[in-house]
Amino acid sequence: MDQIEPEALYEERGETSRARPLLQGDVFEKVVLPGFGDEPQMVQIVTHPCGMRTGPDLTPRITVAPVVPHQVVAGSGWNGSLRVMPLVELIGSDSFATKFVDVTAAPAELLTRERRIATLTHKGIYVLQQRLIKHYTRVEMPLELLRRQSVAVLTEAELQWHWIEEVLTPSELEDNEAIDAEAKIFDDWLGQGDPSRRALLRDEINHATVRKQTHESARQRAATRGE
Fold first, then answer.
1. What angle do CA 29, 154, 87 make, to 5 degrees?
2. pLDDT tens digits in sequence order for the chain, 227 residues long
């Protein structure tokens, strides 16, 4: 099993970008889970990015698992602890872990940008996927294989993040409706072309081209919105 240090695990901790789409591995606070009592708790999204959306819209319920305080997992400890995803130094120097044995579904409306306290890097997401697979099947999947299966959708999310930050003003980035509306515009743009830009992302050889098109189109949209 692959070990990962906090610097490589987390994209953001504490304050997270509101423009970044919700993704597998995101951690939220103050979520009351149905069937888990009335106490708010931390949770992590464990479902694959493809399984939590229909187009740009979130599914009504999203698969999550509770996040609880946990001893630091280091060194050879990453080869065990198959029931958890270690979240070392999630909050300051305090370490936590995601409990796979308590996986459940949370209403999407509870997983808000305001409650998100951490996001994972692409490698962090692959490590989470690896541990989930090992927990459920006892099969250990190479990170490179997991990367090849997820790179298209994660690149799409990365491009959407850039597009929204480029197009929206600082005040609009505080408005959830403005973010959601712009995400739909980006989704429509990505679906254009023959083959579509989204289809091109399925092959990494096209990623640089689609990334360049995204940056150019986002700049153009930002420049012409007020006209």
1. 35
2. 899 999 999 999 999 999 999 999 999 999 999 888 889 999 999 999 888 988 788 999 999 999 999 998 888 788 888 899 999 999 999 999 999 999 999 999 999 999 999 999 999 999 999 999 999 999 999 999 999 999 999 999 999 999 999 999 999 999 999 999 999 999 999 999 999 999 999 999 999 999 999 999 999 999 988 65
Residue 140, number of CB atoms within 10 A of its CB: 12
Around 142, how many Cα atoms within 13 Å sit in the side-chain half-sphere?
A: 3
Give exposure, 147-170, as e/b (b: 16+ Cβ within 10 Å): beebbbbbbbbbbbbbbbbbbbee
6-141: CATH architecture: Roll (2.30)
Q: Which residue has 């888990």 as its token pair?
A: 36
Q: How far apart are CA 63 and CA 202, in angstroms?
A: 25
Angle between helical axes of 143-167 and 122-137 (0-180°, round to 10): 140
* Chain position carrying tokens 């072309």: 193
> Per the structure block, which two tokens stand in for 156?
């799409």
Query: What are the extents of the domains in the chain?
Result: 6-141, 150-224
